[in-house]
Amino acid sequence: MNKNGAPDEEQLWFDRHMRSELSRFDQAFEQPELDPMQLEAFVQNHRQEMKRKLWRELAFFWIVAAIVLVVVLGALNRSLALFAALQAAAGLGAIGYIGITLGKKVKRLWKNS
Amino acid sequence: MYDEAAIVKKAAKGDVQSLSELLRQHYSFLYQYVLKLTMDKGKAEDLTQETMLKAIEKIGTFKGQSKFSTWLIAIASRLSIDRARRYKREQQYVQEEGSARSLRYETLGRMNDWPDALEALGQLEENQRMAVLLKYYYGYSQEEIAEMLDTPVGTVKSRIHAGIKQLRKEMTHHEQERSS
C-alpha cells in the first residue's frame, strides 16, 4: 500500500508477474511432514548438548574468576599502588567497553530513525 | 483447534513436545523460504537445520509478539546474511553457478518448466532477493523487514528498490527475447 492506501504499483507488478510462479515453485518443493518422534529426539538432543556447553562455560568462568581473584589478592598483598593501578585499568576497560557498545547502539538507532 | 499462541507459550517454558510440534508445522514453510532465498538445495537444507537449532536455543526469548513463522524467517535471514559474510565473493560465484544449474534441472523435473520469474529472481544479489521476497511475496513492511534483519530502514528501502528494478528489467528482457 502507498501513503494514500492504494496498492503500490510495484506490488501489483509483482503479483501479476511473479507470485503465481513462485507459488508453483513452493508447491513443487513442499516438504513431507517430519516424524514427530524423530523431531522430539532432535530437540531433546540439542537441549542436552546446550546444557553440557553451558556447564563447560560456567566451569571456565569460575576458573578465570578464581585466577583473577588470586592475582588481585596477590597484588593487594604485595603493594597497594599495584592494586590501585590494576583496579584503575579494569575500570577504564569496562568504561571503554560500555562506551563503544552504547555508541554502536545509538548509531544504529540514529540510522534507523 | 490449533492454538499457536498457547503452544508457543508452552514451548517457551521448555516443553519439548510443543516446540517439536511448532517446528514440524513450520518446517516446509521455512524450507520453501530458504530455498527461494538461496536458490541452492544443499544450502537451503543446511540453513533450515541451522535455523531450527537456533530456534531451539532461543525459544525462551521468544515473547510471541510476532507469528512463529515470522520469527523463524528472521532467524533464517540473519543466518543467511552471516553465512554470506563468511564466504568470499568469488568462491561463492563458482559454487552458485553449479547449484543454480542443479536446482534448474530438478525444478524442470517437478514443474515441467523453469519459469522466467525464477530465472529473474536468481539473477538478484542475495540481499536484494531477500528484501524483495519479504516485502512483495510475504507482505512484510519495510520497517518490519528492517527489524527482522537488524538493518537500517534506508538500507532495506534501497535493496527493495534496486531488487524490484532489476527484476522488472530481467522480466522485460525475457519477454522481448520470447517475442522476437
From TrEMBL, chain A:
TM region positions: 58-76, 82-103
InterPro entries, sorted: DUF5345
Pfam families: DUF5345
UniProt key word Transmembrane helix: yes
Superkingdom assignment: Bacteria
This protein's UniProt keywords: Membrane, Transmembrane, Transmembrane helix
Protein name: Uncharacterized protein
Automatic annotation (TrEMBL), chain B:
Protein origin, superkingdom: Bacteria
GO terms for biological process, alphabetical: DNA-templated transcription initiation; response to stress
Keyword Glycosyltransferase on entry: no
InterPro entries per the UniProt record, alphabetical: RNA_pol_sigma-70-like, RNA_pol_sigma-70_dom, RNA_pol_sigma70_ECF_CS, RNA_pol_sigma70_r2, RNA_pol_sigma70_r4_t2, RNA_pol_sigma_r2, RNA_pol_sigma_r3/r4-like, WH-like_DNA-bd_sf
RNA polymerase sigma-70 region domain: residues covered: 22-89
Family: Belongs to the sigma-70 factor family. ECF subfamily.
Sorted UniProt keywords: DNA-binding, Sigma factor, Transcription, Transcription regulation
Keyword Repeat: no
CDD domains: Sigma70_r4
The protein's name: RNA polymerase sigma factor
One GO MF term attached to the UniProt entry: DNA binding
Pfam families per the UniProt record, alphabetical: Sigma70_r2, Sigma70_r4_2
Residues in RNA polymerase sigma factor 70 region 4 type domain copies: 118-167
Source organism phylogeny: Bacteria, Bacillati, Bacillota, Bacilli, Bacillales
